[in-house]
């Protein structure tokens, strides 16, 4: 059966993107459009958001990956924007301006090792990155493709093996699936290239 879904968020990890505001404070933007290949992480953003504005001015960020138990804190960020005044399109969707996103969502800012935007302490996986390219596709005036390179990865000890690898049985990312939050189910198996 052919269908026409309104959205195609078919199940990807949620990330909280930290970017640098004009005044040196950190903005947090929840995203669900990303993929990684080697050290490169490709992000999908809205062209009218604060993250896009910030990355154009300061091409570095932190990709904070929340665990599944943080979904309510992530959802507190969902209706917020760092853009002031709030763009008309976002007003119609129910967004409101908030500068103090860390406190609004109950997150703790943590100094980054290499980049200027702060990390989110509660997120078990935090990737400091630099922007390699920003592309606004000619086929859509609403989205932006941001190519980043990982330069420093932080992981909570609770999700690591004794050898320093991320243990996939301990790491429980928050998944965004057709505008609903999910965790991972039971493991089904592993690829032949798995080291853990």
Give the fraction of residues assigned to helices. 10-25%
Span of the ends, CA to CA: 40 Å
Order of helices and strands: EEEEEHEHEHEHEEEEEE
| Class per helix and strand makeup | mainly beta
Describe the global form. Answer: globular
Q: Profile the largest sheet.
A: 7 strands, antiparallel
Beta-strand residue fraction: 35-45%
What is the rounded Rg? 17 Å
Individual helix count: 4
Q: Taking strands numbered 1, 2, ... along the chain, how are they ordered across the largest sheet? A: 3-2-6-11-12-5-4
Q: What ranges have pLDDT less than 50 throughout 5 or more consecutive residues?
A: none
Q: What's the quick description here?
A:
The chain is mostly beta strands. The chain is built from 4 helices and 14 strands. The strands form 4 sheets. Strands 3-2-6-11-12-5-4 form a 7-stranded antiparallel beta sheet, with helices on one face.
Protein described:
The chain is mostly beta strands and 196 residues long. Helices cover 13% and strands 36% of the residues. It has helices at residues 50-57, 71-77, 88-92, 101-105, and strands spanning 10-13, 15-20, 26-31, 34-37, 40-46, 60-65, 80-81, 96-97, 109-110, 119-120, 125-135, 143-155, 175-177, 180-182. Strands 3-2-6-11-12-5-4 form a seven-stranded antiparallel sheet, covered by helices on one side. A three-stranded antiparallel sheet has the order 1-13-14, with no helix packed on it. Strand 7 (80-81), helix 3 (88-92) and strand 8 (96-97) form a beta-alpha-beta unit. The protein is globular. The relative contact order is 0.21.
């Amino acid at each position: 059966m052919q269908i026409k879904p309104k959205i195609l968020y078919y199940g990807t990890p949620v990330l909280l993107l930290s970017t640098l505001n004009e005044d040196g404070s950190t903005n947090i933007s929840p995203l669900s459009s990303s993929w990684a290949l080697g050290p490169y992480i490709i992000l999908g953003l809205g062209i009218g958001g604060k993250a896009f504005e910030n990355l154009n001015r300061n091409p570095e960020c932190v990709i904070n990956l929340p665990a599944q138990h943080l979904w309510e804190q992530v959802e507190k960020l969902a209706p917020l924007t760092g853009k002031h005044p709030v763009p008309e399109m976002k007003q119609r969707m129910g967004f409101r301006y908030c500068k103090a996103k860390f406190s609004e969502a109950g997150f703790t800012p943590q100094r980054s090792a290499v980049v200027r935007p702060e990390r989110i302490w509660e997120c078990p996986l935090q990737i400091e990155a630099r922007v390699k390219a920003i592309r606004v596709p000619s086929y859509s005036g609403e989205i932006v493709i941001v190519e980043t390179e990982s330069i420093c990865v932080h992981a909570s000890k609770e999700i690591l093996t004794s050898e320093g690898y991320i243990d996939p049985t301990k790491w429980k990312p928050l998944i965004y699936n057709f505008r609903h939050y999910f965790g991972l189910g039971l493991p089904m198996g592993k690829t032949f290239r798995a080291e853990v």
